[in-house]
Specification:
This protein is an alpha/beta fold and about 300 residues long. The chain contains 11 helices and 12 strands. α3 packs across α4. It binds adenosine-5'-triphosphate and magnesium ion.
């Protein structure tokens, strides 16, 4: 039994019906021995939809410091991000870096195996479960280790989190392309001081955001992102699926969907409701986020005895 399987066993025993204790495990895929194939619900018949299953511990962090922003190039305060528990380049072997190294591998393997698989949407059932935290960590992890170029898109157009998380101003972005205010992806693409990381912000808020995300223009944009940037991973920080209509139109156009499940918070029912909305062909992975540890810095101590 892998350490993650042991962790899930213990999670089931300790948190009872509130958490996702009905998750049943199968043996990991042979090629990816750090992941678990999760059979989330028998009666909902969704086991085939979940491909991989990971864990991220709850980290503790200090207060952030401000930084500056300018159009088309942003200097991200990496020291501040490091304090927030986010993966940054050259930070050495931290717990969070190790966890996202494990998480990104199968996503990267699949990213170039099939058309559009380089489009990876990070979402969750409800608010505050850690979508943006995981989206930024995943993007940083991929960019930091010189694996691939990454484009991080703030697709949470109603309540964008990326500006707060990176401590930068929102500016023209996704919505501006969709309403025709910005002509081209390159007009809104922002380079950063992390060489392989670019950003597209959510842009101007719009009352018809859902229709715009469901529009043909969005389909063309995603096609362009998948093709023109086919050497690059595109990570979408998406809105929560059960709370917004915007999030429901995105998954069918994504190559991979990563659902963030908050330890001891996300219910089995909410998770089932989300997964049941996806097509049987959807490529879904789960991240168990905010998993408590005994002592900060101890690698996954809480669940491994
Ligand atoms: N593994 C973690 N350890 C510690 N704190 C975390 C972790 N994951 C997320 N958080 C914190 O939880 C809060 C919510 O996270 P985040 O903003 O990423 O959630 P979200 O799902 O994007 O929320 P929203 O639905 O509002 O966009 C933030 O304060 C974030 O720093
Ligand atoms: Mg968010």
């Amino acid at each position: 039994m892998s350490i993650i399987e042991k962790a899930i066993n213990k999670l089931e025993k300790e948190v009872g019906s509130k958490a996702i204790h009905n998750v049943k495990r199968k043996r990991p895929q042979p090629a990816v021995n750090t992941t678990i194939k999760a059979d989330v619900s028998e009666e909902a018949n969704i086991s085939e939809k979940v491909v991989d299953h990971f864990q991220v511990n709850r980290i503790s962090h200090d207060k952030p410091l401000p930084t500056t922003a300018s159009p088309n190039y942003i200097n991200i305060d990496l020291e501040r991000l490091h304090q927030l528990g986010i993966v940054t380049p050259n930070q050495g072997k931290t717990q969070i870096a190790e966890q996202f190294r494990i998480i990104k591998r199968p996503l990267l393997t699949k990213a170039f195996a099939k058309k559009n698989n380089n489009l990876i949407m990070i979402s969750s059932a409800l608010a505050g479960e850690g979508k943006s935290f995981c989206a930024v960590n995943l993007a940083m992890s991929i960019a930091s280790e010189m694996d691939h170029r990454v484009l991080l898109i703030d697709a949470d157009v109603a309540r964008p989190s990326i500006p707060n998380l990176l401590d930068i101003e929102n500016q023209a972005g996704l919505m501006d392309i969709l309403i025709g205010k910005s002509g081209d992806v390159s007009d809104v693409l922002i380079k950063t001081n992390v060489e392989k990381l670019s950003l597209i912000m959510s842009g101007t808020a719009h009352s018809h955001a859902t229709e715009l995300l469901a529009s043909q223009t969005m389909a063309i944009l995603l096609e362009e992102l998948a093709q023109r940037y086919n050497d690059r991973i595109v990570v979408f920080d998406a809105p929560p699926i059960l709370l917004t209509s915007e999030a429901r139109v995105l998954p069918e156009r994504m190559g991979q969907i990563v659902l963030v499940v908050e330890a001891e918070q996300t219910t089995q029912q909410a998770l089932n409701q989300v997964i049941n909305q996806f097509s049987s062909k959807a490529n879904i992975s789960l991240i168990y986020n905010k998993v408590k540890t005994f002592a900060s810095g101890e690698y996954c101590g809480y669940y491994y005895s």
